[in-house]
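Methods — Computational structure assignment.
A single polypeptide chain was analysed. Its primary sequence is given first, followed by the predicted tertiary structure written as structure tokens.
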Amino acid sequence: MTGKDKLKELFVSELPYEITEEELKQLFSTCGTVRSIFMLKDDRGNFKGIAFIKMATEKENREALNVLDGTKIQERFIKVAPTKPKNIASESVADPAGEQRSRRRRREPKGRKRMR
């Protein structure tokens, strides 16, 4: 990360599945004010062990990153990392002609084959 990149949000993984939002808030509030917590859940509503956390300032984000990465919670060592900037398009690649194309090939639908 270069010096001019802003650290706006933290990606937290390897969290225990039993942890609550309040416990996460208490943990991260040791580094400053927690603005928001988004805990990723599957389609059944079960927590997946991943969360996105926003602190009040960039300085608090950096402190949480430095202090809490590798912290042991309920027999698990959590990982805290900066989120990737949204302006990086991971699913498309620029063409030399200036156009964008998809990296993945589209699959043909199952069933009857279309005539070309």
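Note: The chain is about 15% helix and 30% strand.
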